[in-house]
Amino acid sequence: MFPEDLIESAGPARISSIERPRFITPAEHSYTVPKTRLWLHLLLLVSTLFTTTVVGAHMQYNFSHNLPFFDVGRDLDIFTVGLRRPQLFFAGLPFSLTLLTILMAHELGHYLACVYYEVDATLPFFLPAPTPFTGTLGAFIRIRSAIYSKRVLFDIGVAGPLAGFVFLVPALGVGLAFSKVITGINHQGTIQLGTPLLEWILQRVIFPGVPAADIYLHPVARAAWVGMFATALNLLPVGQLDGGHVVYALLGRSHKWITNGFLLALLPMAWWWNGWLLWAVLLFFFARKHPPVHDLTEIGNMRVRLGILALIVFLLCFSITPIIG
To answer: Directed axis angle between helix 197-206 and helix 301-317, to 10°?
Structure first.
C-alpha cells in the first residue's frame, strides 16, 4: 500500500446516502486461499530442479576443462554428463539453485502481491525442458479472478520483475567473481550469449580492461544471465506480459499503440536475432490484447516512479542479440 492509497481510503466520503456503498463485514465475507494441487507444483519444481542441474553439470564440466560454453558437434551428450557419476551431477547445483531462486523470487513476487490484494492466483508452475543451456522454459502463475483496479494491476505486474532483479544482481556479481579470463573463449563453440548492459557494467568493475570475449562466465553467472533474459522478456511492453500490465496501468488505453508499435519493432530486430520474429508472432496471437480494467483512479506518483524503475531494470537486462550462433 502506498501513501495515496491511505489518503484515498481515509478521506471523507463525498457521495450521497443512496450512492454510499455498504461495507461487507468479516462475517459476511472472508478471503480464503483457494485449494490447489500442491503435488503438481512440487512435481514440476523437482523435475525442473533435475533438468536444470543436469544442464548445470554440463556447464560446470566445460568450465572446469576450459571448453567452449556450448558446441553442437561436441555437446550432444549434454544430458548425460551429469548422470555418469553423482559428483558430476551435484556439480550442477550452483547453476540450478541460482536459476530456480531467481525464477521463484519473480513468481512469488506476483503471488504474494495477489495474496495481499486477495486476488485468486495459483502457486508457481515450473516448466522443466530439455533445452541445452537453461533446462527450463521458466515458470508462471495463473490468475483466476478479474482485476478491477489499475493500482492492483500495477502492483501485481511490477512485483515479479523487481523481486527477481533483487536476487539476480548479487548472483551475477558472485558468478562474475568466480569467472575466469581465457583469450577468445566466447568466439569458440556453436552458441554464444549476448552481454546485457548490467553484465557489461559489472564486467568492467570486476575485470577492468578485459574484453567481454575473453571472460568465461561461471555457471552461476550463466544462471543470472538466464534470469536477466527472462526479466527482459517479461518486461516487454506488450499486452499481457508484466511490462504490458505496467504500461496499461500507467497509460490506460494508450497501451494499444505501445503494444502494436513494439510488436512492429520486433520485426526489424530479427536482423540481429531471429528469435524476435518468433516472439512477435507468439505475442501477436496469444498475448497482444490486455483484459480491460474499468478504473479511472490515478495510480499515484509513487507507482509512476516504480514504473520508471521497471523501465531501468528492462534496459539493464535487455540485449538485442541475446543469443549468437
So the answer is: 70
Q: Which residue has the cell 495481499?
A: 116
- In sequence order, the 6+-apart residues with CB closer than 8 A to the CB of 263 are 238, 280, 283, 284, 288
**Torsion angle defined by CA atoms of residues 167, 319, 264 and 290, in that order, rounded to the nearest 10 degrees:** 0
In the numeric block, which cell numbers belong to residue 53? 542441474
Specify whether the CB–CB gap between 58 and 75 falls below 8 A: yes
Asked if the model's pLDDT at residue 15 lies above 60, the reply is no
CA–CA separation, 10 and 271 (whole Å): 54
What's 241's DSSP letter?
S
Asked if the structure places residue 240 within a domain, the reply is yes
| Domain region containing 86 | 36-290+297-324
The answer as to whether 26 is a domain residue is no
166 vs 101: CA distance, rounded Å: 11
| Structural domains counted in the chain | 1
**Spatial CA neighbour of 310 closest among 222, 245, 226, 261:** 245
What is the Cα–Cα distance from 281 to 267, expressed in whole angstroms?
Answer: 9
Residue 24 lies in a domain: no
**What's the rounded Cα separation, in Å, for the pair 300 and 31?**
27
Tell me how far apart the alpha carbons of residues 278 and 261 are, in angstroms, rounded to a whole number.
16
Interatomic CA distance for residues 323 and 325, integer angstroms? 7
Contact 266, 277 (CB under 8 A): yes
Which tens digits make up the pLDDT trace of 264-273?
999 999 999 9
Helix (H) or strand (E) holding 198: helix 197-206
**pLDDT tens per residue, range 38-57:** 999 999 999 999 999 999 99
What's the pTM? 0.88
Say how far apart CA 314 and CA 197 lie, in whole Å.
10
Answer yes or no: is 19 within a domain: no
Distance CA 158, CA 246 (A): 7
